Amino acid sequence: xxxxxxxxxxxxxxxxxxxxxxxxxxxxxxxxxxxxxxxxxxxxxxxxxxxxxxxxxxxxxxxxxxxxxxxxxxxxxxxxxxxxxxxxxxxxxxxxxxxxxxxxxxxxxxxxxxxxxxxxxxxxxxxxxxxxxxxxxxxxxxxxxxxxxxxxxxxxxxxxxxxxxxxxxxxxxxxxxxxxxxxxxxxxxxxxxxxxxxxxxxxxxxxxxxxxxxxxxxxxxxxxxxxxxxxxxxxxxxxxxxxxxxxxxxxxxxxxxxxxxxxxxxxxxxxxx
Amino acid sequence: xxxxxxxxxxxxxxxxxxxxxxxxxxxxxxxxxxxxxxxxxxxxxxxxxxxxxxxxxxxxxxxxxxxxxxxxxxxxxxxxxxxxxxxxxxxxxxxxxxxxxxxxxxxxxxxxxxxxxxxxxxxxxxxxxxxxxxxxxxxxxxxxxxxxxxxxxxxxxxxxxxxxxxxxxxxxxxxxxxxxxxxxxxxxxxxxxxxxxxxxxxxxxxxxxxxxxxxxxxxxxxxxxxxxxxxxxxxxxxxxxxxxxxxxxxxxxxxxxxxxxxxxxxxxxxxxxxxxxxx
Lengths: 273, 279
Hints:
By secondary structure, chain A is an all-alpha fold. Chain A has helices spanning 2-6, 10-34, 43-52, 54-70, 83-99, 109-132, 134-137, 146-170, 174-201, 210-218, 223-252, 255-258, 265-268.
């Protein structure tokens, strides 16, 4: 119980509604102003998870989607049932927070180069089992059309280079863990979202990523594996970008402010300033 | 800036003016459906959502849609529902196209457009999914249009929900319009400094941090003040807060809640178990 109540200090209770508003408004802004094919609607959720813990993170995610569905003026659409996905994302973020994933880890020299290279290799390696999953390669069940395969390889290489560059240029090993946290969160989100999309919405989500669902169906996938294939493609990208955005934001906040949150100590341990 | 409430402000003003009180103090619910207890309306919305998604085939979504339309007509919010119907268009188009033309394993071709063939099975699945989505979205929309957020939260707190949860929900809903107008300011400010919102994907991805950064930093700077303000007002005190505004409830409504709530669960269970094969 102490573990639970520590996650809900007054400061966290104040942070959660702000995080919910950030999720909704930023998600909406990125999709309509920048017109990017990513959701970016979990920055607040991950922020609360990292600062307060898994239960607070899960609650933020669930409430974000329910309020988004319900709220007067901005509400409507079909986001509500995906509250379960958002809850899982927040819960995982809480675990990353407890593990201190988002803590800055300054490094130099050989160690820095080693981690950059390993991170790049890992990012590519993480994409291979997703592409190699029999649900998509087995011609009896499905199979990616060629352009999806090529796009995935290109994106994996770009991501690998970006992550390696991030680690090397910022001289910070945290980039390695932040990328892994993002990818794992994305894969988990995909597995939770796919049945929701398949059962509630005929396998689509109403965004640009539905092109991918169509392509997978064209390739012969069934409803469920087409949704899963789409999720495994877009969610890791989305959550990795979100993960890095959260890391950059946390890096810009003062240690004094961070340390006041339940898991703040784990974010500032090695900070000089 | 306050969010739009469930009640038409002109009506509230008229009622309030009659009693000599401003609308935000005295918000008299008008009409039969609006004056139901918020908890009753929320149970109806939730049960509708469960039936729309849980009872497969045509029957579930159609019943919910008919019921929701009837409630909307009684409550007089049919016109406001149009916006919520419009909000479902992207997903409905997607559902119709993807399922009608690319439903896995369907062979009963109706017609072909270029290389794509629309199948009977696919069209059936697509129309059922469309009905489910629209029925669900509208049942929540009717609840949101007929219930003032603060009424709903006051009632929940009266029923025993913790003040932390009601604060989180109420505060989040109240903060969204303020945050949205701040987002607009940030977008305009960054555009003035050369943010590219029309260029290539690479350029637009570079816009994420300039947009997210100021928004998040700005919002987080309020955390400290709000925390102090709440603490100073005894937010973390152990005792329960007394709810001063108790919304009318009745035995009839309680019976209705149990009937609708349990009924929807039984209907879904029976549908999944295949007890009553509905079209």
